Amino acid sequence: MPKFTGVHQPFNPNKPYWTKDTPKTDLQKRFFEKMANAVKGNKRHGSSLDHNHGEPDPYGGPSRFEDLPPIPALDELDINAIPAFIEEIHQARLEDERHERDLALERASQEMFSAYIECHLKTSEWGNLLTWDLDNKPACTCRPSQRRERNVDLVDILTRRKVLITFCPCQENDQTRLIYMGYIGGSPKFPQTAFSIRLLRFYHLIWKFCSTRLGPFARALDEFLDAGNPLILTKTDEPRQWHTPLYWAIDAYRQMLTMTEEALQIELNLTLIDKLAENCPRCFGPPVQNTNYPLEPDIIVCMDGNFQHRRHLSAGTKQAKKPIKMPSLFLPEEQVNQMQARLEGLPENDFQACADQHTAANDKRGNRHWGGCDETGLMGMACRHDHPLRFANIKQSGEN
Question: Where is the CxC1-like cysteine cluster associated with KDZ transposases domain (predicted)?
Fold first, then answer.
């Protein structure tokens, strides 16, 4: 069975992949045919030259030598010329690979979640130094012929090592086997690299409070582990890069966090006011009588917009092949549109004073920058205790 690498193969102009690979989808098939026709149409054919320049045809015809356009210098020729739509095919292949990884994660998520919850309770959320990396795999009765072994690179906060791991049919997905060991693999099928769950939890918290990018974090982690740990190389004797597998492992870990939160909400059967009280107990929790300020309002909220948070069309919902799951704090787009339709029926004079005072970003000022953006700003509402309550994406119009 072929191994899933999850990395797009580099394009080689001398051996184009569209002549040897079988298209995975109809879209790729159409692109491959279009590319082959374009390359064939742009192919230069050699023409026979007659050195008798200017000599008439003995049979009375025109000269046998035709004036050809000047031949460009060798340094001006692009021997690796690629059709303009090669980038479209590249993006289509990447999108198909992302879709395949998402489907694999969706199929294995339930089994992974069962193992995740079981080990979560046994290891105190992988914070127990004595039990976080113990193999909690249940005993099985699989025959030796059914088992398979594979070397997996295990990366932790302090260690980096290669371990021979035994997989068996008891777990439908290899990710479940790694979770029992305290790790999450870097690819949905046949992972060759796995990261400890406590490392993924550590990065998730850093990203939550510091907005750390994944690429620099992966390079910093790799350099930090160079001291006292063996250097792991690829098949071509190159240092292994952790960015791509770490990206997928973090996505899988966050999927486990989302499923945990959803399971808790189902079990607790929280109402809307209960969820708000969980966010800010001081505002939405049980009322507390304040004798010093008896007329103090129960809830004080503030709203403001940020027009530097833009989202380009290439990363927006229109270009996505699958629906984007918005966080629960964001208002649905349908609800925002309903409120907009409701406000359009009110007299315009009611909003004129506010519009004249707020000119941070209106249609005239931001029209030059909004052409290539799917979302042009972010509107937020927070209570007086600095707890965010709701967010809404802004599409042009600014604060007007």
Answer: 136-226
Verify that 256 and 304 share a domain, yes or no: no
**In this structure, are 188 and 334 located in the same domain?**
no
Q: Are the C-beta atoms of residues 89 and 31 closer than 8 Å to each other?
A: yes
CA dist list (Å): 378 to 140, 284, 372: 52, 24, 16
Q: Are residues 255 and 311 in the same domain?
A: no
Q: Give the span between the Cα atoms of 156 and 195, in whole angstroms.
A: 6
Domain count, the chain: 2
pLDDT tens per residue, range 151-163: 999 999 999 999 9
Mean pLDDT, the chain, rounded, equals: 78
Distances (CA, A) of 163 to 133, 148, 152, 227: 13, 14, 5, 19
Write the pLDDT tens digit of every residue in 97-128: 777 877 888 888 899 999 999 999 999 999 99
Token pair 């796995």: residue: 194
Q: State the Cα–Cα distance between residues 261 and 116, nearest whole angstrom.
A: 13
3 state SS of 229: coil
Nearest CA among 197, 204, 6, 201 for reference residue 115: 197
Q: What predicted TM-score, i.e. pTM, was given to this entire model?
A: 0.67
CA angle, residues 131, 135, 139, in degrees to nearest 5: 130
Structure tokens at 250: 């973090």
User: Residue 173: which of 254, 115, 126 has the closest Cα?
Assistant: 115
Range from 178-192, 332-346, 368-382 carrying the lowest mean pLDDT: 368-382
Residue 93: predicted pLDDT: 80
Place of tokens 């979560």: 120
Task: Flag whether 102 is in a domain.
Answer: yes
Token couple for 110:
């339930």
| Shared-domain flag, residues 255 and 370 | no
In this structure, are 260 and 162 located in the same domain?
Answer: yes
- Residue-range definition of the domain harbouring residue 335: 299-317+330-342+361-400
Residues 6+ apart with CB under 8 A from 262: none
